[in-house]
Amino acid sequence: MPEKKSSEAVIAEFEALTRDAAAVQRETLHRILSDNAGTEYLRGRGLAGRTDAASFRACVPLATHADIEPYIARIADGDASAVLTAGPITSISLSSGTTQGNRKYLPFNQELVKSTMQIYRTSYAFRNRAFPVEDGKALQFIYGSRQFTTKGGLTATTATTNVYRSEEFMSTMRAIQSQVCSPDAVIFGPDFAQSLYCHLLCGLLFADEVRIVSATFAHSVVLAFQTFERVWEELCADIRAGALSPTRVTAPAVRKAVSALLAAPNPALADEVARRCAALSNWYGVIPALFPNARYVHGIMTGTMEHYVKKLRHYAGGLPLVAAEYGASEGWVGANVEPETPPESATFTVLPNIGYFEFIPLKASDGGAAAADTSFAEEEPVGLTEVTVGEHYEVVMTTFAGLYRYRLGDVVKVAGFYNSTPKLKFVCRRNLMLTINIDKNNEHDLQLAVDSAAKILAAEKLEVVDYSSHADVSRDPGHYVVFWELNADGNDDVLQSCCDELDRAFTDPGYVGSRKAGAIGPLELRVLQRATFQKVLRHYLSHGAPVSQFKSPRCVGRNNAGVLQILSGNVVKVFFSAAYD
């Protein structure tokens, strides 16, 4: 069990770590390379036991997942030799697969558990300084994903599930005042809808004890309270009767665990929940209304999740929204040590001892920043403390779990420094692009275009529930397709104006020039039936993807035919831009 430390003690450790981040990075690299010097991967690179950064960069090339996939496949198939790490790879982590349509295998070991607990404790310490929490529970909308056993006998599941199943997770949650409301049977339940219903029910049963409302991703919190709007009367009926709905929850283990919490009829609580719901206007502030002692809402709210912040703020009322830590299935990068900053401006301070970090400068040929451009000549990576404020970089990480100079594919902007370690602002995934020919628009560009067009909707009390896009090159000239799901039916003239604005809002010179020259056709806006993105979610779940890591795919390629078919099959209205007519 991890030692329980005060928030101030954890912050003091963080201060010491970041005071001389360069020295910590040298020591971290030394430890990774010396611990794993005998591995096949490093032996074959000619390091010959050297552990300094110059030798490491000279001998070990930058790598993508495709470069290390054969090594991971051998481990998954049962090769127990020191392939990537000297110590054992205890399981395989699976990426969500929602960004590119396929799931990656990644090595997972006890070192990743340790770094996860460190980053959880660090972020919590700063949150607890800003929003003190004494005793209480966390209503966490978290879900274990399905797992399977590889040919070599290793468990394969998501990185989050690997963490949830670790002995350290629950004890750390208790140590940082984040004990969950729901029993394990709910978290690891076989059906997402049943687990979500039970998370809501357990939260209501412990309503006055809830201090934190959270999920891995903001989308999961929004989805939870969208569901609450539909099922709150059934939840009240269960509380009133002291018995779980036989139709909503059928999984035996889940029923048994939640029924033990219900115990007896509680009409007073049911009446109180109903009274609080009746007092709300359009569900604004439902979270503090139901959980009056909650201090904040917590989850990943950057990148593709930023779209859900507006709706989350609606549900949260005046409660602060706190962006969670920055990491990926491959490993962690940084903690949010300024939790009072709004999610849209959140930065993540790199912990210099959880991995060795390099950053590839991203520069356009004209000297400006090119956050997602893949066509320029890349500059040499720089070290953690060598980055420049205001510049864009791609993150490269070397981890304790066998990834060496691994290109994460994330684009970040350096917002400043905390002591001597950089504060990063997540910008976008580098390889998610809308492109027809010389145009290049990334997911951030798409988000800006959607936000711009959505301002037209706001005057009509309409909002974009979710969105995606596709570069349609099935006919010449190719054109962009943007898919919108709205909260209500929109007027055709308004939607046509939105379509025109979407087209104008893509300001990449290659796109604008191609549109004017007719080399790219008019942008197409396809309005979807309501609940279409619920179908997309179910599609991913049916293929084993985890709901806790679900991210609506913002750019759907032809390799993601299943999702493209769902989107295209649920179109109710189509508009073509007249912006360049």
TrEMBL record:
Domain (GH3 middle) ranges = 348-429
GO MF annotation, one: acid-amino acid ligase activity
Q: Which GO terms describe its cellular component?
A: cytoplasm
Name of one Pfam family that matches: GH3_M
Task: Write the signal peptide boundaries.
Answer: none
Q: Which domain of life is it from?
A: Eukaryota
Q: Which residues form the GH3 C-terminal domain?
A: 445-558
- Could you tell me the keywords of this UniProt record? Ligase
Q: Which InterPro entries match?
A: GH3, GH3_C, GH3_M
Q: Which family does it belong to?
A: Belongs to the IAA-amido conjugating enzyme family.
Q: What is this protein called?
A: Jasmonic acid-amido synthetase JAR1-like
